[in-house]
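Dear Dr. V.,

Thank you for agreeing to look over these. As mentioned in my earlier message, I'm a first-year student in the group and I'm still getting used to reading structure tokens, so any feedback on how I've presented them would be very welcome. I ran two proteins. I've put each sequence directly above its structure. The first is here:
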Amino acid sequence: MSIPMYLYYNYFTRDFGGNIPEQKIRELVDRYSAINPSWESIDADYVYSGPFEQELTSLDLDRDARLRLIFKNPSVKIYKITRGI
């Protein structure tokens, strides 16, 4: 998976003056890639999937039985997390 460079733009602009060390990028991308939460383990009732979120994942949220689509327009989908399925 390729993480867009602008994902960490604010972090590096603030802390590194805009110079993004390759080692730091790799560290953050590796950490992000290792995250594997379940819908039951997060403190949320809804999942927002907009253009930015869709760039970051290849997950097909429409196929996830634990999510129910409650809103959709051409660029955004909002899902309700169903518990206990």
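The second protein is here, in the same arrangement:
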Amino acid sequence: MAAALAAMASSGHITVHAVSRLFESAPAHVTDQPRFLNAAAAVGTRLEPLALLALLKDIEVSGRGGGGGGSRVWGERGPTQSSLLPLFFRPPPGARPAPGSARAP
């Protein structure tokens, strides 16, 4: 977790504001593996959503997230070493949605 947070912060595109405590959960889909460690982080960025996702996936797959890299494709339902996912995205104040982008009601 610390490596993933450090990689996000050192990217120059993400500012880490707060981090939750770690909590464990049972593995999903492939159950013959160690329990998962989970955490959430509140971050700031000026990246657009797809650029943020691309950066997080780059950190995840490259191993800079502490998982050793080479995480498997989710569709394989196999174990991954790390998984970085944006859960909520709020555009900066004054930002305008791109033409054709989805809007929340």
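From my reading of the second output: Confidence is low (pLDDT under 50) at residues 70-75. The chain has one domain: 2-76. Does that match how you would interpret it?

Kind regards,
E.
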